[in-house]
Design a protein that fits this description.
alpha/beta; TIM Barrel; 2 domains; eight-stranded mixed sheet; 22% strand
Length: 437
Amino acid sequence: METIFSADWLLPIERTPIENGAIAIENGRITRIGTSEEIGRGRNFPKAVIMPGFVNAHTHLEYAGYTGFGDGLDFGGWIALHTRRKEILSFDEVVALARLGAAECLVSGITTVLDASFSGASARACSDLGLKAIVCLEVFGDDPGRALHRFEELREVALPSLSDQVRLGISPHAPYTVSTAVYAAARELGLPVVTHLSESEAERAWLLRGEGPLVALSNYLLPPTGETGIRALARASAIGPETVAAHCVDLEPDEIELLASLDVAVAHCPRSNGFLGCGIAPLADLLEAGVRVGIGTDSPASVPSFDMFEELRFAVACARARERSPQALTAARALELATLGSARTLGIEDEVGSLLPGKCADIAIVALEGTSLLPCEDPQAAVVLGGSPERVQLTVVNGETKYEKGEFEWADLSSASAAARGRMLAGSSDPTRAAGA
């Protein structure tokens, strides 16, 4: 039996917006889209928009609750602080944080995430809350055998939570903590891969000269190679179409061409790059080169929230500021990048990212009532410019409601994560001491 939702607007993404739109779903799939006259009204949401659930191309759900930690530290000191603090936590505390992160994603209209997980806890959190995920288990070091052994240890942790909705991937952390041999071994697993690449000038300074803010982490780093991460990985055939490279801020033109030629996708995380002082990624150049680009919120370790609406507004502002052009990134294009674009970066665009018959029924319903955007001139721009987690009315994953405004229990999630945050603060309260560890 079909379930029908209708609203003032339906945003298919791959087709033009439908005024007085409706969507019919059955058995977890979209069966029909059209006007409410054609499809029926079903459950109606006046002064609202029905859109695809966001696909968050880069998260660390286990860092929920880290908001504000290390604010103002340089890149090396910031990483050192988080490395020290996360070692304090028990596995159950990391699960509590990851559950809060998964919940905050659902509340922001996010239905799928590509997560980098240092413990495997994200898999349990996503399974518990019904958030679709590719959970990429983090590995480090220069020895492929040891790195893959660690991956297998984490896989055993995640295994009970894996399903068609929660899948497994691998995450070689970054070129300054992982050798090209480990990247190549990770690629041979045939799984999705996510990594941090060209995130900052600090990364380049370490890899080329052994200098800069990352010196604070020298005990954790591989020796300088004299070569940037992208060039080294490309030369070793250690990245490819299965790889999603988060950030890609500090890029030379030839490195953009390398990414395009290897069909490496990029997760654009403008708020994280801005808050950490890393710069503004060359989004226009990446898109012009044909690189698959999606939008990621990263995590509260570097940004205030998993709020995808705020991420999109920041993405629009940064792109226009960098290019000095209001045409550099429209709100509608930003919305596409955070839905279908992100789905393409993950290689799952046939299943999610737009509202078409046959695709998974992953939707978000966003109210515009109370904004200054009504009457609505452009519903796609209205969602980006006026949307917020507070305006999300419903988040549906595979046809099942996973979040409904006013009917979501926060108390246990918040208290458990607050306890974990308190333990981290009590165990390492001196950023200067942590940064020098």
